[in-house]
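#onboarding

Welcome to the new folks! Below is a worked example of what a typical request in this channel looks like: someone posts a single protein sequence, and someone else replies with the predicted structure as tokens. Don't worry about understanding the tokens yet, we'll cover that in week two.

Example request:
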Amino acid sequence: PKAKEIRAKTLSNIIVVCVGIALAVTLLHLGEIWTAFKAVLRTIAPFIVGFIIAFLLMPIVNRVEALFNHVLFKRNPHPRLSRAIATIIAVPIGIASAIFLVEYTNNKGKLVKIVQVATETLAGIPSIVYGLFGYLIFVVTFGWGYSMLAGGITLAIMILPTIVRSTQESLLSVQGGLREGAYALGTSKVRTIFKIVLPSAAGGIVTAIILAIGRVVSESAVLLLTINMVVNKVPESLMSPGTSLALDIYYFASHGYPDEAAATAVVLLIFVIILNLLAGWIGNMIRKSTYGDAK
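Example response:
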């Protein structure tokens, strides 16, 4: 027992010493750490703003839709989880893929050509094809049934080519002299990407994200085949079926409610117009903050 106590006390003293050394080193380099933190914060600030605005829009859209259904049509409000799932999945993968293609393959090679052909082809495929894919894979093969998760993942697959292609074009529009200047000063590739390239292309990237969300908001064929069209029931989880404004339009029109269908269409049209105007405004604001008024 005494030997165990001695070993435990010795180990405890070693840990305390290591923590003290780490704290001392941190305090000695506190200025450098703070400088690096500010640099990273300035780099990711435009993307944080874009994501905050995008995700702030979603609950607003949800509340307006719920109020719209509850007040005008006397229906129970229901959340819209599929848009959030699609955005969370598609945006990081799309931006990371574009960065790899442009910065690490120099936009050359067989892989880049294959990805470009694939993204251009997938971007032009009708949404009903994505809906059939999601139905066969997620609803039938995986056994998820009609669910918000199946609809969200299918929507993410649908908007992923658009985000990849738009981000790729935004990164290619950054002047090569900026990268060469950073490399000449001894900056690493990762720091150049996050410090120079991404801030310069942030306007186009955020605009692409918001436009992709606008497409998701107005989508109907994909959701009809993956989340079904349950109008009067609140989804209990991600594995529950649901509906959307676009599906509400189809429901009202096919069940003899033309006035309600027209009113829902007006609300959806207003949402899409606001998203498009917001995308242009945010893109211009980020470009001005990056390049100045001269641009």
